[in-house]
Write a structure and sequence with these properties.
This protein is of the alpha+beta class. Helices cover 21% and strands 36% of the residues. It is globular.
Length: 159
Amino acid sequence: MQYKSAFITSLIIVFLSLCAFQIQECDVVALKSVLKKELKPDFKYDSAKTSRFTYKTKKQMKEIEIPLFMGEKYKFLFNTEGLSEMINVEIYNKPIGHKKRVLLYKLDFKEGQNIYSFEPEKSRKMYLSYTIPKVEEANISKGCILMVLGYKMKTLKGA
């Protein structure tokens, strides 16, 4: 009886360790650090957004509203290193369901590349849309994507 409870305890410890490993797979500090370096020298760090999700047997969608100041120059950077399965990343001018919604950017994944950038022509409110594909089996696989936003400093003439 004592061996049976020790075996079950060992199995529980192994299972919890595997779960903890899956949850820890997104090192936000490291991913953000890489992207902040990519902003230099032309752009300054503005903000970051980490989106975490669990892959499921049904397709999922997340949308994030990103307000930008009109007339300013911005740069979006994405780090996809925390993804175990590729997702669709798109930026629109209007929220989901709006009839005048226009696609401004679609991330085109390339083998061996984890960092992607987008510099919009106009600054206005934008909507970042993530579509997470369905997986065949429900599991504990998790993923994350990090977006960093930078802005370009304008210099005053004659100052």
